[in-house]
Amino acid sequence: MSVSLHSGLGNVGYRAGRHRFNTSFYHLMRSPALSTPSSDTLASLDETALEACLQRQVSMAIQLCRDVFPALPYPHVWFDLRGKCAGQAHFGRGGLRFNRTLLRENRYTFLAEIVPHEVAHWLVHHLEEGHRVSPHGHEWRTVMRELFGLEPRVTHDFDVSRASPAPYRYRCDCRDHFFTPRRHALARRGTRYFCRQCAQRLVHEASQRPQNGA
User: Fold this and answer.
1) pLDDT band for position 156 (cuts 50, 70, 90)
2) Between vectors from CA 134 to CA 132 and to CA 138, what angle results, nearest 5°?
3) Which of 121, 140, 104, 20 is nearest to 62 (CA)?
4) 93-109 confidence digits (pLDDT tens)
5) I need a labelling partner for 95 at 20 to 30 A (CA). Which of 26, 52, 79, 120 fits?
6) What are the DSSP calls for the chain, one per residue?
7) Active-site pick, 118, 128, 146, 205
8) Mean pLDDT for the chain?
């Protein structure tokens, strides 16, 4: 099951205030830029220690971003995200939200992929005009590939059966949304729902064309 998470480079720069983010700083990564504890180490951690480990992963990712964009503010971090989304960069609240259940059940992949995924959103948003770009567009993909050394996957493949009672997946231009049976029934009867972030109408996955992706 694929569930939403949120290019080669020229000498392209983005400015914010006195600081300049310049993609010429990047090196082509052959492996992930962030060090992640082993699966065995992570399996031995209780919930408090696991969440502290994620906080450290966020800190390392932010520091890597600050190497190329020193003005980047440090985000708050919450473990209050529920449902089938693993993480969310919440710009209104000023931080990153993570799904505690999916973290607990997918420890290594969560730290290695979900954390940089959301930090990449955080970085792109704070670039000049960053709030205008597509959430998973060129800028975000560039950060994932060239800064974090990861393939820019938009979806995850976690088992979400214990994470959400909302089984109906809807999509917009920026992410997946999951509806309860009641909301899904209302949508089938004609009620329209729109994404609060990109303002696009939400469309039931079964109504869309098949898409390539993770």
Assistant:
1) confident
2) 115
3) 121
4) 999 999 999 999 999 99
5) 26
6) --EE------S-EEEETTEEEEGGG----SS-SS----HHHHHT--HHHHHHHHHHHHHHHHHHHHHH-TTPPPPEEE----SS--EEEETTTTEEEE-HHHHHHSHHHIIIIIHHHHHHHHHHHHSTTGGGS-TTSHHHHHIIIIIS-----SEE----TTT-S--EEEE-SS-EEEE-HHHHHHHHTT---B-TTT-PBPEEGGGSPP----
7) 118
8) 81
Is pLDDT of 171 > 70? yes
- Under 8 Å CB-to-CB from 210, ≥6 apart: which residues? none
- Exposure class string for 144-177: b at 16+ Cβ within 10 A, else e: bbbbbbbebbbbbebebeebbebebbbbbebbbb
Q: What amino acid is encoded at 135 in this protein?
A: P
